[in-house]
Design brief:
Strand order of the largest sheet: 1-2
Family: Belongs to the POMP/UMP1 family.
Pfam family, one: UMP1
Protein name: Proteasome maturation -like
Keywords: Chaperone, Proteasome
Helix content: 40-55%
GO cellular component, one term: nucleus
Mean pLDDT: 76
């Protein structure tokens, strides 16, 4: 039986992994009826739609969301309702794009608010927008927008 932790009578989300129930596989209909449009939508993977391959995969995918939800609940119980609302407002303001669409944004303020500024992850050195192979013209991107 899963142990439920509570803080002053309020239950916190469980740390045990919970998988989503199996869903039905649906074929995306294209212009030609039930035949999928592979050129526009790409190849579909039925295995990813059905279930996770390992029981911990769902837990690892949603770890940050569950941890954030637990932190917000504890913050609400300790400091009141205004503290999580203020943090969510700061995060939403920091996540807004402030540069032109073709220029990469480092999102330093958002990373600092989320606590990612003290860790090094795969995205820090493998997903650098300056290493992109596509160079876009600023004027043409702004005209399209």
């Amino acid at each position: 039986m899963a142990a439920r932790y509570s803080l002053e009578g309020k239950e916190l989300p469980s740390l045990l992994p919970k998988q989503k129930p199996l869903s039905e596989t649906k074929v995306k209909e294209g212009h030609y009826g039930p035949v999928p449009d592979t050129l526009r939508q790409g190849f579909s993977s039925v295995q990813n739609d059905l279930s996770c391959s390992h029981p911990l995969e769902y837990s690892e995918r949603n770890y940050l969301q569950v941890q954030d939800k637990r932190d917000m609940m504890m913050l609400r119980d300790i400091q009141g309702l205004h503290a999580p609302l203020k943090l969510q407002l700061e995060r939403s303001l920091a996540s807004q794009k402030q540069r032109l669409p073709c220029l990469p944004s480092s999102m330093v303020a958002l990373e600092t608010l989320l606590g990612f500024d003290t860790t090094i992850d795969f995205d820090d050195f493998l997903n650098d927008p300056y290493d992109s192979e596509i160079a876009r013209d600023v004027h043409s991107v702004m005209e399209n927008q």
